[in-house]
Amino acid sequence: MKITMHNYQRKAHVKIWKAFVRKKRVLAVMATGLGKTIVAAFCALTLFKKKIRNGKRCRVLFLCHDNGILEQSVEEFRKVLGKKYSFGIFHGQEKVYDEVDVLFASFQTLGGNKNRDGWKEAFLEDEFDFVIVDESHHSHAGTYKPVIDYFKPRYLLGITATPDRMDKKNIREIFGKEVVNYPLEKAIAKGWLTFIEYQIITDNLNTPALQKLAREVLHGNKRVSIKQLNETIFVKVRDEEIAKRIMEHGKKTLIFCESILHTKNFQPFIPGSEICHSKRSYRENQKVLQKFRDGKTQYVLSVNKFNEGIDIPDVELVVFLRCTDSETVFWQQLGRGLRKIPGKKKVVVLDFVANCDRVAMIKDLTKRVEGGSEGGFMKDALYLSGKTFKFVFSEEFREIADIINKIKLKRRISDIPELAAEYMAPPKNLLPAEDVVAGTNKKVWWKCSKCGYERKISGNSRIKRKKGCLACVGRVVTENNNLSVTHPELAREYMAPPKNKLPANEVLAGTNDKVWWKCLKCGHEWKAAGNNRARGKGCPKWRNHKKQ
User: Could you tell me the pTM of the whole model?
Assistant: First the structure.
């Protein structure tokens, strides 16, 4: 049965194709549960309706790193495209790809191994007119990037729920700035997802120690670090007590555990539960997933297998027994049960918070949901609720959040290792790092730990606005990031002045300006943007010669 798009999906579809009119690479950010795969499928349908290549239909390539996500995506595309178009699979378990309209391929299979490049053996670089990169926040990874760089489609679409990476690598360098941006907090506030009731469970606290710290930090001058706070106030809760709380709800439940060992140790406390994690085989995990979807299993314990892409829309209870440092993983796991389906009234989240980082993440999420809420909402120290959401806090949670906020206000640059490593000591700056508040609005000197570029900017911009090195993101030229250093093979074809205005060591490889190149193989001279060359585009005359 074919489906139609929700209003926000239609708007995303229009924005993507409007962007394709002026550029070939587009990024769409849509929170988990908003149906980004459906939007991608309608984009493919639009291409099929509009474009014909040499009398034949266009071809689409859908790329991802997970076989389960690929197979789920096939079903989503089938709902949109129907039986008129053919589908193929190219991954470790199956390879059916000759002349299909839409091919679903894993990066691992396409990448081959050290002796084989799977994508080069099977496909021409211009084989596909439209390439879709799912979970595109991985695009800088060694399995993703070579494949993305090899193919030369008319249109390249990156889709992800979480564009920002922990390692600070920027996927916007590959796809450009997002033209669709529907973050989780906006989706919750707008009511695009199911009603969420978020309960923060703080049974695992040393309450006397917390109250003592609250008096000393909030009303006194005691300085304490986040690490010290974690070590002082959080204690282990017995598994049987946690399990009892979970089973009281009697709902279809997805439980995120701390580790694989934790899943094995916790499983006996949840009768009839199943385990799904990365150390089990693909077939074992698929079997568990299917039983869960069919309602034959009520509880599934996982570590990381449900972070991305896998949909179980009728999940009504999501439980966090782990506290990841990664906001990306947190948003992905939280989104597992948020998709709206008929008959589902709400999803309940039980978060057994076990460190201060999680407290800060939840507090930040509630602020952003509150800021995006257009309707009325009710708020006091212990809850925040609106038409589409309800966050229930405890008195202890509020105290921890207040202490964290006070700690952050008092932090010095020397307390934050990544800032301390780049803060320039006197006489470049007037004061040493231990005497400067990390969030200062005054501009101070920093030296990039990666490329050595020096820049004057406020500590507030470094922390709150997350502004990093301009040289590393390719906005200024330095001795470490110019064309001669980063792309020596291109520098040999770059034509020196007066043909080009600047020498190679004063130009960025990714420049959008068109400059002159001379092919080392055939001597042809042509003008092209450095950005296109860095993405793999070579001499047009030599490319046509190869095809002949």
Answer: 0.70
Asked whether the beta carbons of 318 and 286 are under 8 A apart, the reply is no
pLDDT at 116 over 50: no
pLDDT given for residue 131 in this prediction: 95
Are the beta carbons of 321 and 245 closer than 8 angstroms? Answer: no
Q: What tokens appear for 517 in the block?
A: 């190149």
Residue 245: pLDDT over 60: yes
Instruction: Measure Cα distances from 546 to 124, 536, 543 in Å.
Output: 12, 15, 5
Give whole-number Cα distances, 66 to 71, 109, 148, 290, 309, in Å: 9, 10, 16, 16, 9
377 backbone φψ class: left, alpha, beta (φ>0; ψ -120 to 50): beta
Contact between 199 and 392 (Cβ < 8 Å): yes
Q: Is residue 368 scored above 90 in pLDDT?
A: no
Q: Mean pLDDT, to the nearest integer, of 430-444?
A: 87
Ordered domains of the chain (ranges, CATH) = 7-182 (3.40.50.300), 189-409 (3.40.50.300), 412-463 (no CATH), 483-547 (no CATH)
**332 to each of 183, 263, 311, 400, 448, how far by Cα in Å?**
11, 19, 11, 24, 31
* CA dist., res. 182 & res. 367, Å (int): 16
Least confident of 48-52, 98-102, 515-519: 48-52
The strand ranges marked E within 251-366 are 253-256, 274-276, 299-302, 317-320, 346-351
What is the SS3 assignment for 160?
strand
The Cβ-side half-sphere exposure at 68, using a 13 Å CA radius, reads 21
Closest CA to 460 of 484, 491, 436: 436
CA distance 24 to 532: 11
| pLDDT band, very low/low/confident/very high, at 265 (cuts 50, 70, 90) | very high
Burial of 437 (0-12, 13-18, 19+ CB in 10 A): middle
**Other beta carbons less than 10 A from residue 253's beta carbon:** 24
Question: What integer pLDDT is reported at residue 51 of this predicted model?
Answer: 67
